[in-house]
Design goal:
The protein has ten helices and ten strands. It is of the alpha/beta class. It has one domain: Rossmann fold (3-Layer(aba) Sandwich), CATH 3.40.50. The longest helix has 16 residues. 39% of the residues are buried. The structure holds adenosine-5'-triphosphate. Adenosine-5'-triphosphate (ATP) binds next to strand 2 and helix 1.
């Protein structure tokens, strides 16, 4: 479904990605891991067209994303939950959800169409808080809202940059169980997070980035069996 091959990305003259590659198949949950500053967010930004890839190719369902503006890439079915969540502070929860909603143009949204009620069913807390302003929400509520907002675009692939960073343990558990539920209905997900236990429980495949290079990929059994890789590249 998503394929990055040989991506080079730069901030000005400083190169952040060196031949980065990864892939996500339909229905898969895939992680992107690595220590701070290694290139995870830059990889997501490259996919979403927020930074130009100067070499290599990014394809989504057979179509090249190279050179397309971010809104076109989103329209093709990529739904981003960005680092820092970027909730609209001066809109209510409900307004945040409907502001960027998009009806599925084809009947291909995994698990069926997303609307306000389905998001409220997934996160009842958002229903209770639907008239609260974005800047009145807790971190956990903001992350639920960011996920709900991405789902309201009816994405074929959901991308989460730091799924549970900075959240309380109970909220983290709720986010992981939400992602497990999404996987169960066939939603493809590319997720960045630091919790290896949670990631190996849910993900089909893992990609590890170090200083802008892809250094390892494999499945959960292989990652669990490889403490050296975890120590060397994830600092565990
Ligand atoms: P984190 O877990 O801290 O978010 P990351 O793996 O997502 O880390 P990136 O944010 O992709 O890392 O950063 C990769 C490299 O690019 C780092 O060396 C970082 O300093 C650099 N970088 C990131 N954003 C910018 C920017 N806007 N301008 C210049 N350099 C940047």
């Amino acid at each position: 479904m998503l394929e990055l091959s040989g991506i080079d990305a730069f901030y000005g003259r400083s190169q952040a990605l060196f031949g980065m590659s990864l892939s996500v198949e339909a229905g898969q949950v895939v992680s992107l891991m690595g220590r701070n500053g290694m290139g995870k967010t830059t990889t997501i930004r490259s996919i979403m067209g927020l930074i130009d890839a100067r070499a290599g190719e990014i394809r989504f369902n057979g179509q090249s994303l190279t050179g397309l503006p971010p809104y076109r890439i989103a329209q093709m079915g990529l739904g981003l939950v960005p680092e820092g969540r970027q909730i609209f502070p001066n809109l209510t929860v409900r307004e945040n959800l409907v502001a960027t909603a998009r009806k599925s143009t084809q009947k291909t949204t995994p698990g069926g169409h997303w609307d306000l009620q389905r998001v409220y069913d997934l996160f009842p807390r958002l229903s209770e808080r639907q008239n609260s302003m974005g800047d009145q929400l807790s971190g956990g509520e903001q992350q639920m809202l960011a996920i709900g907002r991405a789902l309201m675009t009816n994405p074929k692939l959901l991308l989460l940059d730091e799924a549970t960073e900075g959240l309380a343990p109970l909220i983290r558990t709720e986010i992981w169980s939400c992602l497990t539920g999404l996987k169960a209905v066939g939603q493809a997900i590319l997720v960045i997070d630091k919790n290896v236990d949670a990631l190996t429980a849910i993900c089909d495949r893992h990609f590890i980035v170090e200083k802008g290079h892809l250094v390892w990929s494999g499945n959960s059994t292989e990652l669990r069996a490889n403490p050296d890789i975890q120590h060397q590249y994830l600092g565990i």
